[in-house]
Amino acid sequence: MKILVLNGPNLNMLGIREPALYGSRSYADLVRFIEGTARDAGIEVEVFQTNHEGVLVDRIQAARGTFDGLVVNAAAYTHTSVAILDALKAVGLPTVEVHLTDPETREPFRHVSYVKPAALATFAGFGFDSYARAIRYLSENVK
């Protein structure tokens, strides 16, 4: 199995941006965690981060025929991007939505997810472990 993990805007600022909310671990720490989780599960993984919506759409489209599933943390675009939703629906890859924090417990504008309608499952509020849960979910439910 080959999974693409997509991270959206400001995740590259982990450890710097709002550490009381997101923790002190860096984006490099997150990438190492994801790669280790996938390796332990015998899964090939590629991790990609961008601050640009169109780049996320391009990467989702390019994943078709190359990856078996997607783990998506669209970050702020979760709450605004119909383009990302449309791209996820267009490629039809099994997708799991993840968030480090739980958007449902935060500001009301974060309660809307445009990723959720294209996702098989959502793991939110578990910190880095949200990604581990998503990888396990795909490995157990996608053949």
Explain what you see.
This protein is an alpha/beta fold and 143 residues long. It has a single domain (2-141), classed as 3-Layer(aba) Sandwich (Rossmann fold), CATH 3.40.50. Helix content is 36%, strand content 18%. The chain is built from 5 helices and 5 strands. It has helices at residues 19-22, 27-40, 53-63, 82-91, 129-141, and strands at residues 2-7, 44-49, 69-73, 95-99, 121-124. The chain has a 5-stranded parallel sheet, sandwiched between helices. Strand 3, helix 4 (82-91) and strand 4 form a beta-alpha-beta unit.
Layout of SSEs?
Blueprint: E1 2-7, H1 19-22, H2 27-40, E2 44-49, H3 53-63, E3 69-73, H4 82-91, E4 95-99, E5 121-124, H5 129-141
Parallel strand pairs: 1-2, 1-3, 3-4, 4-5
Helix pairs in contact: 3-4
What features would you highlight for this structure?
alpha/beta; Rossmann fold; five-stranded parallel beta sheet; 18% strand
Mean pLDDT: 94
Total helices: the number is 5
Approximately how much beta-strand content do the residues carry?
A: 15-25%
How many separate structural domains? 1
**Oligomerization status of the protein chains:** single chain
Strand order of the largest sheet: 2-1-3-4-5
CATH class: Alpha Beta
| CATH architecture title | 3-Layer(aba) Sandwich
Category by helix and strand content: alpha/beta
Largest sheet: 5 strands, parallel
**CATH topology category name:** Rossmann fold
The total count of strands amounts to 5
**What general form does the structure show?**
globular
Helicity, in percent? 25-40%
What is the name of the CATH superfamily? Dehydroquinase, class II
Could you tell me the radius of gyration in angstroms?
14 Å
Which runs of at least 5 residues are low in confidence (pLDDT < 50)?
A: none
Order of helices and strands: EHHEHEHEEH
End-to-end Cα distance, whole Å, is: 8 Å
